[in-house]
Amino acid sequence: MVNKFRGSYQELQDRVLLLGAYGMWNDRGNHKQYRTEKGAVLNWWESTKTIHFQGPKDLAEDLKQKFDNS
Fold this sequence. Notes:
The chain is α+β, with helices and mostly antiparallel strands. It is 30% helix and 34% strand.
């Protein structure tokens, strides 16, 4: 199943802020990326609203679970 986030970039940033997974955003135009200090990565493509998590498996899964439950 493809994950989607249908809000705006600002709404995505606000939601990620509440997760407590500290890191930094990179704005690459259509592709927005959040890298946590621990190494998990959230990728979001604004045009398709597709969201994808990567990084060390346990960290990426933890970030995805926190995001899904927020």
